[in-house]
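GNAT family N-acetyltransferase structure dump, as promised
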Amino acid sequence: MDIRLRGLVDDDLDRLFTWEQDPAAVALAAFTRSDPSDRAAFDEHYARIRSDPSCTVLAVEHAGTFVATVGSFTMDGEREVTYWVDPDRWGRGIASAALTAFLEVERERPLVARVAAHNVGSATVLRRAGFVEVGRETSYAPGVGADVEEQVFRLAG
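structure tokens r here:
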């Protein structure tokens, strides 16, 4: 797949904000902001992570078009990966290709990934990239306003 990773730029934020408001995407991701339509919270979040040297956030281009983000951050002493794909482009292998490319950039291991247990697509992406499920937890998910079972994956190595 013809994908390229690059730095996230200001011009990407309007599209990303739109994607992160998609009701189906929020329901699948679950662990999002409690109000996906709150632009100030969105802008604050991205300003914070883009200025934090311990966070990596990259744009993903497919055939020259911005289609996703992929990144990593440290939480509770563990390095975690995250990604978000334009909902109009789900099911085309973009998340798998982006994560595979990102794993060449993010060399720290082990890596952790968390996904709502009902998000079968994201769990499949992680397994294809070599992540193994190591547990399940139930946590409050602000995006859906309820407790959600979460699968925890790890990539050793």
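DSSP finds five helices and seven strands in the chain.
lmk if u need the other ones
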